[in-house]
Amino acid sequence: MLRRPKPTDSEADLLREQEHFLTSGAPSAASVVRRPDKRRGEAGEGEGRSGENEGSQRDVVTIEDLPDQLPSLTPAPPKKSRFKASRVTFEDEDAEERLDRHDTHISAVLSRIVERDTSSTPISLPAFTGMAFPKVLHRSETSNQVKVNNIISSLNFKISYQLVSGQGLQGPDSSGETMRIHMENQAKLQAMSQSEILEEQKKLLFQLDAASKIVWRSCFWLTNCHFHLQCYAVFTTMDASVNTEEDLPVKPQKEWVHMDKLEPEKLEWLRDLPEPRRKGTKKAMQARFDFAGTLIPPTEDLPTHLGLHHHGEEPERAGYSLQELFLLSRSQVIQQRTLSLSTLANILSKACAGEYVSVLKGSVTSTLLDAGLLFLLRFALDDSVEGVMSAAVHALKALLVCAEDEECLDCTFSWFRGLSSFPLLPSAQEEEDEEDEGLDESMKETAKEKEERKSDHEVARQDAVKGLLKMKLLPRLRYILEVVRPSPRVVQDVLEILTRIARHSSSSATQVLDCPRLMETVMSEFLPTSWSPSSQSIYGLPLSSAMKLLRVLATSGRHACARLLNSLGASERLSHLLSAEPNELLLEPTESLRITTEAYRLWAVAAGYGQACKLYIDLYPALVTALQSVHRLPPASDPLQPLQLQRFLALLSLLTQVTHTAGCHQELQAGMVSSGGEECPPPPPVSWGHVTGLQTSLMGHLKGFIKNLDDPLQKDGSLTLIPVYLVYLEAYRPCTLLPGRCIGGCPLLHWFNVFFHTRSSSVVCNAQAIPLGPEITNNLPGLACMGWRNRPGLVAPSSPFPLLTGLGLLLETITGIHKGLSSKVGLTVLGVFLFCCCLLVLYIFCFVYVPLDSEIAKHASLYHQVALVVLPWLLPGSEYLVHELLSTIVFSKDFISEGHSGGPEAVELGELKLHEETQKDTSPSLQTVGALLREACVQLPSIRGCFLTHLAHLESSVIVSRDALLGHNPWIKSHLLPELTGPILPSDWPFLPLLSLYEQSGVSDGGGLAVEELPQGALQAVTHCLQWLLLLEVWREEALKVVLPVAKFARLSCVFLCSSDLFLERPVQRLTWGLFRLSTKLDSLDLNVPPPGLASFQDLYSALVSQYEAVSFGDRLFSCWVLLPLQRRYSTTMRLAVFGEHVGMLRSLGVTLEQVTMMAFTSPPEDSLPLLRLYFRSLVTGTLKRSWCPVLYVAALSHVNSFIFSQDAAAQEVETARHSMLRKIYYLTDEVLLSF
């Protein structure tokens, strides 16, 4: 049978189907015939044709069951033209000749004018008046007697029969013809019943338009005929009745324009509002907001003069819903569009602050984005009215920018690695493209091609910022700044929007730099090299927000920073702004402090790449002058104190980065000499000689601030500055210029010891006190820093985190210069670090102090537990810390004190069993765990090498992270951290070698490879992995608590799934036995919960059962592994699979009754009828025998016995099955089975 063509068929497919059709000889669905010419007397297709006429004939395609004329779309009779019948047309006639024949001159048209017969038309003369001209109508004159001049009132209703006049008839006997027609109509009406008349009248009314209906109703109003009254009633039900003047609530006056037509929809607005709801209800109601974005309760009664009741739905409730605001934003009235956009901006601001979280169901921001808010704001930006455009900019700023997030980032800029930040990218969601399935890698579309193929809506749904960039937001913002030149508030909003776009990613920052004339406009208008203090406009004055935009753009990468400094003239701006004091900049005091602070930060970012260091030499006198004023802190009552502190912190951050860059000068100089032409960064223009002079001054400042801690008025300011000084001293890591006497005479450590014993700070313990967070959407992520100043956290002003970090870095630098100084650091200092959770530098102290101090070594196991907790917490950008933890602490014998202090022996004694019956157990007992642990401790260096090998793919990230952590500025490419996709190591990282082997061999080869066919070193890697897991399970159980027991069981199952005989190897078998015994004794093992990474545990168990049937050979370990999920407390699905689909495995499950707890398999009694039937069938047919599978044999026998002889009431189906089993028992020949 021939198939029909499909829309997806190509041209080759169509040609192939055509050839197949022609070769098959099947009859076509449509036949081609020639229509005969009747005027020439030609016959149809069967008669002969003349050869000369064949070229002029047309082929006509006829299709079966297709009518010649199309059916009418309406019940009205088809219209016929009076002129078409008089025209004679021919099918072979040329269309051009026909057009020329009909397109005649106007004289021919005028010559055919026929005069109408007016002999029977009555002549009416105008009425005689006593005035020469009609009286002029003045609408201002009022008259109480005037009626509405509408269609109905202008008609004179006469209660009489209206007959057909016959005015259109011509001839002498026109009146007789009229009467004859009338008599025929009367006869037809008398012959029809009343129902037939009504039916015909309905058909007639249905065919008339609105104007004809009005004329019909006015002309056929008959009040003395009951029949016509019924007809009129039918008509009024079909069409809306026209209200008369008496029905109006307000009497219209003649001077009121356009009051001749009644509009009931508008009159509804004149009614009184219903009473608002007085009592609360649990029913969900639509949220309504006032113009300030405040949510209005449903029971609140607000006055109408506030303008909050102008909506159709729920008119008694004040406020506007989101849907009504969206509708109002498309109004033709400018004020309404502006008001709606301003209200949406206020709602977004409150939603980002989390004010609606506790009172509204769902997310307001997500609802607005799903409704198309981005497109609404983008279209509003193109509005020609500046007020509407300004409101749209403000709303877009409220959506994208969180002011407290920016404040939090500014506050942490001077911390250790405060220059770095994560890109604000949405979490990556992999989408499966069905079009690429089955194609080669070379044929598949690249990520860039897929991104270009997506529509604006799809891109915005996944990433709001990327969607705005795709909608050409940057050119529009450039036009607003350059051409429109809006108010100062709009300019600030635009600069903040650009800053948020630059924080999105390095590619977004590059688009901001590449936008034509955008950055040139910002530099020339808002960062000029000279300005007038009397300027009345914001244009022409330097703005701190513009300088901050440059700083965020520079953070995105080394190349972007170089473009700003050199191509756009940012270096010149830094010289102009920082060469003078803030009070000499001819700006407001607050703005001068802000812009110099941002200038220092931009310079610090550039120095973090090893750039703009020549500027340090040029402005060294100005920097020294600014540094001398740092020790004179302003009083706390000064309103400018916070801004001055931020300026001091930015200056110290700049000096820290310059010092880091100077520390690389010697190494780069040596590398340039020995590189021999290889690529090497050029040495920076600054060296140690340019920065050593700052050390004495800064150390004096530090000692002064420590002394000021006793002064309550100076304490807060000193605590703010001390951490930055400590971070600066850490920059002396590459040299030996920081002797011990710098710290010896400083009471720093003693004061820290006293300070941290008098206060407590914990983010984990105060988690309940943290308020509800703001609304965070998937396509518009944020930092969730709303209210960070007033809640406990690492960034709060009361947080000890920056101080502890600075102290730890300083101590690490000191001990790195001379390890003998470590004896001056007491145990209490390390305890402070431990209990205050300053964990990022703890590993260095432990690695240095534990081998040297016996008192600290007593707590080595505690430090080891802390390191294991920290490891899966570290985020991208800290790969070097992960490498250092794994290399120094995690696998170190010094920190696993149980391995050399009788730990294995203690495990053996604790698990010793003195009962003789346990000796019958042929499988390894818990007594072997001690020997396994002893062997694992010996293999710790090899275990460390195994895990570091499996993490070799992080080598490039480790190098980048090392350069950033150690301050190797000339090698740093970007201060943007990698995309935040989660921790560097997963929580189940101890299973990594085993999972890696399963992905390489088990998935691709179906677990059929032998050990010899596995990748080289696979057996050793699995052995080391199992040794490490056993060590953690016994001595570091807390470290694996983050992994669910079902996840542990699923991951250990890879031992059986990745190879056909790996589990038979002796070291693997012994270690797996030990882990199996430790995991099965836990009651928390719940196999009904799907393991992370799997859809359900049943899928994993099906693979295990299939592998058991194929390669197990009745191995006891594998048998116990597949028996565990068959316990009574787990899902019935797995037992149904074994007794239904995998009955063959019952012949080899030879686990004895002594090896398991039978109560777990037999209690409570089984209640699944299908499973009971399978139990009974396997027992009766001999599929399940005691000699083959003792455990399941006893379990099945117990459940069937309990079911058959149960006395509990049950459903009819259950009773029927019970009696059926009981009858079949009498036919059994197995005496052993009958005895039970």
UniProtKB/TrEMBL annotation:
Biased composition (Basic and acidic residues): 1-20, 39-57, 441-458
Domain RPAP1 C-terminal: 286-351
Chain ranges of the RPAP1/MINIYO-like TPR repeats domain: 990-1211
Record keywords, A-Z: Membrane, Nucleus, Transcription, Transmembrane, Transmembrane helix
Chain segments annotated as transmembrane: 829-850, 862-882
Residue ranges of the region described as Disordered: 1-96, 427-458
Gene Ontology process terms (BP): transcription by RNA polymerase II
First-listed, main subcellular location of the protein, grouped into a coarse class: nucleus
Compartments in which it is found: Nucleus
A Pfam family assignment: RPAP1_C
Domain (RPAP1 N-terminal) ranges: 180-209
Biased composition (Acidic residues): 429-440
The family this protein is said to belong to: Belongs to the RPAP1 family.
Name recorded for this polypeptide: RNA polymerase II associated protein 1
Gene name in the database record: RPAP1
